[in-house]
Amino acid sequence: MIQNDGKQDVFQQLQDGFMRVLHHNTLDGGELNSYVFFRKQTNRDKMKQNNKRLSWKATFWDTKGPETFSEMVLLFFKGVFMGVANIIPGVSGGTIALITGVYSELLQAIRSFNMDTIRYLKQFKLKEALNTLHIRFLLIIGLGVAISILSLAHIITYVFTNFQVQTWALFFGLVLASILVMGAKTRNWIGSGGFAFISGTVLSYYFVALIPVSTPDAWWFILLAGMVVICTMILPGLSGSFLLLILGKYEYIIGALKQPFLPENFMVLAIFGIGCVVGIVAFARLISVMLDRFENVTMAVLTGIMCGSMRKIWPWKEILEIRIIQGKEKIISEANVLPTDLDSIFFTALALMVVGFVLVLILEKTASKKG
To answer: What would the mean pLDDT of 335-364 be, rounded to a whole number?
Structure first.
């Protein structure tokens, strides 16, 4: 009897542990990854059992994010590439997130800021609020984006300015392969999938050709601009800086950033920042819900948006109109043309286009093997 009771106790402990892990991951809305079964109790569980307060270190490591050093490094460089894309007008960080296979995780991480987080913040329970967020994921990928923008901005700007055709060619190859890869996964092309793809393509195709308009400087429009512009970070195919230019607020926001501590500029940036936070949290939640409920249609729309955006990233262009904004030339209107000279620039661009195309296929093959 004693032996049987011991076996029952062990079995009960294993069952309780399994259900706790399953319950924890189901509530967070994340996938039940294989590594969870091999992890011991979380720091939060240990603290509760020992009647100790959760430390900041335990809180940080208890949040969702990469588990190994190699995963952290890989996620960091994905953030770096997203930052590079955000620097180049016409290219979206969301496109790179989709290409590198981190798109769904990014949406889930942004979506982790929820009502529980707000409730804990209202109660000044900062550790509990932090524990609701995918903070390790957001911190690592955000660090990559920030370092990329701050340290590589001048280099990328120089490369893009002096090797514009080659740079566009590389991104053209990346996006073209991504469209084919995503298109191969889309179902029901004759029905809803095809209609969604065409809708996304038409919307994006005409959007990238829009001409900047004059808009008010009122606080409500600055808030709205922040909400709309930040959405391009998680929407592949559309550029945030380009959208800001279309809304007529590029010069206004850049001017405020040059002297951010002036009272009037600080207020403008604060309102714009609030709009960004509200916009990205709400839009990430919307996209996540759409992917959960209408995955095929949503992916078809996103694929179409990328397809339409290729009008903007075609390497060979003819400039039609330029404006001086904050002392710098900004291309307002341009037309795509065919290459006229079969010179070194043409062959270099062609080679980079192939490199970008093959790179996406390699990433997709690697991701499929892991899956």
So the answer is: 88
